[in-house]
Design goal:
Keywords: Cell cycle, Cell division, Coiled coil, DNA condensation, Mitosis, Nucleus. The protein has 1307 residues and is mainly alpha-helical. The chain has 63 helices and no strands.
């Protein structure tokens, strides 16, 4: 054994002597065998004494070991480097080792570099092989240069096998253990840079030690030793360096083992050390603040940073936690990134630390009100100027409210601090619900949902309407949030107005484009409507209560009443149909509705009221008619028979007259009869045969009398047809239907023909009277007659029969209807009507209108008749004075467009004229019908259609404007995204009714009358604002590249045409076109932003996808550069020429042009001289206008700030209410830079002057002007009686032109 040690020692010393004679400037490293020999010597039992003796005998200094070891530690080979590091550290820990001789900066730095390289990939992909000759040549050269036993250099080093990687990791663990031992023996207090480098190296190993279990423990042991031992310098500085090196791991954007281990080291190791060491405690206390300043901006990494910070804060003492809370509150007033992080930290503090509101025993807590301060700061951030901060603050507030409201003790404090339920809180929510940022709107709706448990009463009407309107938001996520918020309000406070708003907002979402919203709508309807109504099945009908509301569950009557609303009913029908198909409608719903109707009848009878005047609760029959289609077995026939008899006990003629007068009870009665018949038709297959036959006979007799109200006819025919289908075979059923249809048609023909003959005879008799009597009075007699009402019902019944039985024989009916609808024309008539000179439009308007409707139904089933009569329908649509008839014809034209698309397509321009109908209902109906046809591609966006739809954006009706905004902002933007861009120039000319443009002189085919109807010509403020609203709506639909192209087209096709004389600016319409163009170019919607054109259906939160954001930024940069290029090369020359033309004509458009140029060039202030090099005068004028505008803006800003400060003076001390104090606060608020500071100084000077003059003249009144000695200016013309002056004329002129105090400020 001793011989082996001697041999190893001799080999080490031999190589060391050989290396000692080499060039000292390029030291060579130890070879691996020598390092292994050295390690065997140092690790052996003999210690290091023989090594030191042999060094002394050979006269080798101990420092001669350092250079070869340093070179070996710097070797690119990980194994060789780590072996050298281990040998170096073993030397330092060997007994009797001269530490201060061996421990020098250079080897120590080499050791640190070796540690940094230790965890890099050991094997790397082999480079591409070189030609064989060159490779061998290089190898021979390398071998000649290398001495025997030396390792290869980096270029020729062999790649280590894969199993050497684990060997390197084991070596690294050994090196770190030795390093920990060395650090216990040496001091680093004199080398702060070395300490810092060591900490950085260990932190790098920590960051790269994924998958290794021992390395993190060793690294943290080393770091703890550096902090805990005062031998290594100031412990606070050491702790600062250690904590700073761990910050990147703590703020890791993903959850990783390094992050978890670093946090564990801080909370389990460093925190206990802080209790005994104030320096380390100070460093740890400031660590969360440092992490907050370094936190990433993206939302997900920021959330991880908040978790890391809070894990550290939770481990701190109470006093330190309060200090960090105060720092967080101050962060809410910092930059945007800090405010975003601060609101997230506040919610983490409030939900993580105990007793945030200080309601419990807090004797050990220094500041028991810290939670209130956090809540106040959070409320303030809900009104932040940055949308992302507002959204985040609202989301965090919702989370805090949901967390703290779980404890009832916190309710009072939350009401006091946040003002939940107060007018101010409701106003904040209302503003945020209509915020321009989608993320803010969504967060506000979530806050409403969470705060319902605390409000304790229904929200006010305005906020309720705002939440309801949010259900129609273009964004899917907003609609979902509004759906949840409004439903939560309904659950908490189901009163009448909440139910009404819910029914008007939620059921319409059943036709939403998003399937998930449809499903949620169905689920909520089932829960909040049908399940509540099902509870009425438990009502005890045996009680003596006379009040129906006391019998039924709360809100059931309000629900049923809201269901029968005209806007809600179609949606309810769709929801019930969808739920029925999914088999989600239960029999208990139908049973409960029957119970409600029976309870209402019983309550009415207990009050001794006549049963003839009783009507069921509104909506009960209507909902039962929809539910019974899917639950026919749950409806009792005895119940239906009894209700049918009750509704049949009244006089039909009296009810019909009451319906015509619009009495509410009669309308409800007719609606109930229709719903009852619908229910009967739904359950008729379950009826016994005998009652079914009796019912069919009664229905046929009632139809045959033609004395029903028109609203009942369809229900009777449908029920009768359904009953007839109960025959043994379908053929017999169809034959029976055809039989009674022909009977009814024959009788209807006789009634109508008889009435027409009576009218004709009356007209003939009237013509022989002297003097001739007016036909108007005779027409009133017919209008009130029974035969006229019967004829109207007969005509309507014919239309219903045709739809239910298209194969019916209509011989004789069509000619008769033709005679009625053409009675005003001079067409040949049948012999019996030859004397008819007054049209039925005047004699019987209702018969005239119903004849058109019935003829339209016939045309739907007969294409040959449709070809003949569609032109007549279009003609009548344009000339009829009856709004009801125009509305009905519009509905028929929409049906014709679906069935006979090619026939109607050529009449679309005439149909669209109804968009400007004087009746709002007709306009709205036209807009809705055409919009549906456009979405289903029965009508194309071509020709005049798009331009005529634009005027709906500024319609007098708010409902039509809302529909138009939704069409253009949501549907059209997706279906035809280029339509706004392609039609923008033409829209400007059409809206101004401009025909003086040479390129558009025949706009819309020269139809001047129609273009006037669809134009908003005029220079008044209202017309210009309406046109501008339309332009802005179109600009919002364009992507950045389309905005750029539109800007170029505006300059080239309108402004260039004006400067070239193609567009006459002397004409009023031409001036309006140019003025609109200049305003469009200057509006903020025309400015190009990088995020324009991205998917607007996504939330605009502060976070986002990095790749998408980079792409959008690059795209925006390119478009911005192109915009600048277009402005300089194309727009500015056109503006210069147009300015010269307008100045030569003294045109009032010059001011508009200068204002437009000022807006366009305000972002290029430093380049104006270069851009306007062709017109120096324009350059000077623009610079002057910009300076004047900025001065005026600064002046108005200061004035507003002063007013705000003065309004809050009641809370200030008297010293602060002086002019100096006020303007000092204004200056502090607005800053001290640029125009603002100058405006503040001028305002302060004026206030000071006024104050001084007021003080001087307080006791002395100002003398009248006539008593004052005023100098007079003498003329230089030498007039009689006036002394001549030696003053030159320019002096006197300057006195006359003295500038005022205000103008001096502007100059």
């Amino acid at each position: 054994m001793e011989d082996e040690e001697n041999e190893a020692l001799s080999r080490v010393i031999s190589e060391l002597e050989a290396l000692h004679h080499d060039d000292p400037n390029t030291p060579s490293p130890f070879s691996e065998p020598s390092l292994l020999d050295l390690l065997s010597l140092l690790d052996g039992g003999g210690g290091g004494h023989p090594l030191w003796d042999h060094f002394a005998a050979r006269k080798l200094p101990l420092s001669s070991l350092l250079c070869p070891l340093s070179a070996a530690m710097d070797s690119p080979s990980p194994r060789l480097s780590l072996l050298a590091s281990r040998a170096y550290l073993s030397l330092l820990v060997s007994p009797s080792a001269p530490l201060y001789t061996l421990f020098t900066p250079l080897p120590f730095l080499s050791l640190l570099r070796s540690l940094r390289r230790a965890l890099k990939p050991i094997s790397s992909p082999s480079p591409a092989p070189a030609p064989p000759v060159d490779t061998s040549h290089d190898c021979r050269k390398t071998r000649r240069k290398r001495k025997a036993g030396r390792p290869r250099d980096a270029a020729a080093a062999a790649v280590l096998p894969a199993d050497h990687q684990s060997d390197a990791r084991d070596l690294l663990c050994q090196v770190l253990e030795l390093l920990d031992s060395v650090l216990r023996r040496i001091r680093l207090d004199s080398s702060h840079d070395g300490l810092k480098s060591l900490i950085e190296a260990v932190a790098a190993i920590l960051d790269a030690s994924t998958g290794h279990h021992r390395l993190p423990d060793l690294c943290f042991r080393i770091l703890y030793g550096l902090v805990s031992r005062p031998d290594h310098g100031d412990q606070m500085l050491s702790a600062v360096e250690v904590l700073r090196s761990l910050a990147p791991m703590i703020l890791s954007p993903v959850k990783c083992p390094a992050r978890a281990s670093a946090l564990g080291f801080l909370t389990r190791t460093m925190v206990p050390l802080c209790r005994d060491n104030d320096g380390v405690r100070k460093a740890l206390v400031y660590l969360p603040r440092f992490l907050a300043m370094k936190a990433p901006e993206k939302s997900e990494p920021r959330a991880l940073a908040v978790d890391s910070i809070m894990e550290i804060v939770r481990a701190m003492e109470g006093e330190d936690q309060i200090g960090f809370m105060q720092y967080t509150v101050k962060m809410t007033k910092g930059k945007t990134q800090l405010r975003l992080l601060a609101v997230d930290l506040i919610v983490a503090l409030l939900t993580s630390l105990p007793d945030p509101l200080g309601l419990k025993d807090s004797s050990e807590i220094i500041d028991c009100q810290w939670g209130m301060k956090c809540l106040e700061a959070l409320v303030q951030r809900c009104s932040d100027s940055v949308g992302g901060v507002r959204a985040r603050a609202l989301l965090d507030m919702a989370q805090v409210v949901g967390f703290l409201s779980g404890d009832e003790e916190n309710h009072a404090q939350l009401h006091e601090i946040m003002g939940i339920g107060s007018a101010g809180f409701n106003e904040l929510l209302r503003r945020r619900c209509v915020d321009e940022k989608a993320a803010v709107r969504k967060a506000a709706l979530l806050l409403i949902t969470k705060s319902m448990a605390l409000i304790g009463r229904p929200i006010d009407e305005v906020l309720l309407k705002t939440v309801g309107s949010a259900c129609a938001d273009p964004l899917v996520s907003i609609r979902k949030a509004a759906l949840a918020a409004l439903s939560e309000v309904y659950r908490r406070f189901p009163d009448g107005r909440v139910i009404s708003e819910w029914l008007h907002a939620v059921p319409p979402l059943i036709v939403d484009n998003e399937t998930s919203i449809q499903e949620e709508c169905e689920t909520l309807f089932l829960e909040l409507v049908l399940d509540r109504i099902s509870q009425a099945g438990k009502v005890n009908l045996g009680t003596n209560a006379t009040d129906l509301e006391s019998l039924l569950p709360e809100g059931v009557l309000d629900l049923l009443k809201g269901i029968c609303d005209g806007e809600v009913a179609p949606c309810i029908k769709k929801i019930c149909a969808s739920l029925g198909k999914k088999k989600k409608l239960k029999n208990s719903i139908a049973s409960s509705l029957q119970n409600v109707i029976t309870a209402s009848e019983s309550s009415w009878l207990r009050n001794s009221m006549p049963i003839e005047k009783w009507i069921a609760p509104p909506g009960a029959w209507q909902l039962l008619s929809e539910v019974s289609l899917f639950t026919p077995k749950a409806v009792d026939w005895e119940f239906l028979h009894h209700q049918w008899q009750l509704l049949d006990m009244v006089n039909l003629e009296e009810k019909g007259e009451a319906l015509d007068r619009g009495e509410l009870n009669s309308i409800s009665w007719a609606r109930d009869r229709v719903s009852l018949l619908q229910t009967i038709s739904n359950v008729c297959l379950e009826l016994p045969m005998g009652p079914a036959v009796d019912l069919a006979e009664k229905l046929f007799n009632r139809i045959e009398n033609f004395n029903m109200h028109l609203s009942e006819v369809d229900a009777h025919i449908k029920a009768l047809k359904t009953l007839c289908k109960r025959k043994e075979t379908p053929e017999k059923g169809n034959a029976l239907v055809l039989h009674w249809v022909h009977q009814l048609l024959s009788k209807a023909l006789k009634i109508v023909d008889g009435y027409v003959s009576d009218v004709s005879e009356a007209e003939k008799a009237k013509s022989f009277l002297t003097p001739p009597q007016s036909g108007r009075r005779n027409g009133k007699d017919f209008l009130a007659s029974k035969s006229m009402l019967q004829a109207v019902t007969a005509v309507f019944t014919v239309g219903s029969l045709v739809l239910y039985c298209p194969s019916a024989d209509l011989q004789g009916i069509v000619p008769l209807l033709h005679t009625i609808i053409t009675s005003r024309n001079s067409e040949p008539r049948p012999k019996k009507l030859a004397g008819l000179t007054v049209s039925f439009e005047e004699i019987s308007p209702s018969l005239y209108n119903q004849s058109w409707v019935t003829l339209g139904k016939i045309c739907l089933v007969d294409d040959k008749l449709a070809k003949r009569y569609i032109p007549l329908f279009v003609q009548e649509l344009g000339r009829s004075n009856c709004a009801a008839l125009r509305n009905n014809i519009m509905v028929m034209m929409a049906d014709f467009c679906v069935r006979y698309t090619a026939l109607v397509d050529c009449y679309i321009p005439k149909i669209t004229k109804s968009l400007r109908d004087p009746c709002e209902i007709v306009r709205r109906q036209t807009f809705i019908l055409l919009s549906r046809l456009l979405q289903r591609d029965y009508v194309k966006w071509k020709g005049v259609l798009f331009l005529r739809f634009l005027l709906s954006l500024v319609d007098d009706s708010e409902k039509i404007r809302c529909l138009a905004d939704f069409l253009f902002g949501s549907i059209l933007k997706v279906k035809a995204p280029l339509l706004a861009y392609n039609s923008f120039i033409e829209a400007i000319l059409v809206l101004n009714d401009c025909h003086v443009h040479a390129g558009h002189s025949e706009t819309q085919g020269g139809l001047h009358t129609e273009t006037q109807l669809f134009s908003i010509r005029g220079t008044d403020e209202r017309s210009r604002s309406q046109r501008m609203h339309i332009y802005v709506s179109l600009l919002k639909q364009m992507a950045p590249e389309h905005l750029l192209a539109t800007s170029a087209k505006l300059c080239a096709e309108i402004l260039a045409a004006a400067s070239d004389g193609l567009l006459n600016v002397d004409d009023v319409t031409g001036q309006s076109v140019v003025q609109d163009t200049l305003q469009i170019l200057a509006c903020k919607e025309m400015r190009i932003h990088s995020n324009r054109g991205s998917d607007t259906t996504e939330m605009d939160d502060e976070g986002g996808d990095g790749g998408g954001g980079a792409l959008l930024a690059a795209r925006g940069k390119v478009v911005t550069q192109l915009a600048k290029k277009n402005l300089i090369q194309n727009a500015i020359p056109i503006f210069i020429e147009l300015k010269r033309l307008l100045e030569s004509q003294n045109s009032p458009l010059t001011g508009c042009l200068m204002e437009c140029l000022r807006v366009l060039l305000k972002d290029y202030k430093n380049e104006i001289e270069e851009i306007l090099v062709a017109d120096k005068q324009l350059q000077k004028e623009l610079i002057y206008d910009m300076q004047k505008y900025e001065a005026a803006k600064a002046k108005s800003t200061v004035k507003e700030a002063v007013a705000n400060v003065q309004r809050s003076d009641s809370y200030c001390s008297p010293a602060d209410r002086t002019a100096t104090g006020i303007y000092a606060r204004v200056s502090e608020k607005l800053g001290t830079g640029g125009k603002i500071a100058s405006a503040v100084a001028d305002a302060a000077a004026r206030a000071t002057v006024r104050s001084v003059l007021k003080e001087v003249n307080r006791t002395v009144a100002t003398p009248p002007l006539r008593s004052m000695s005023v100098p007079k200016l003498k003329s230089v013309m030498g007039n009689a009686g006036v002394l001549s002056s030696n003053r030159p004329p320019d002096v006197l002129e300057s006195l006359r032109r003295r500038q005022s105090f205000e103008s001096d400020e502007e100059n």
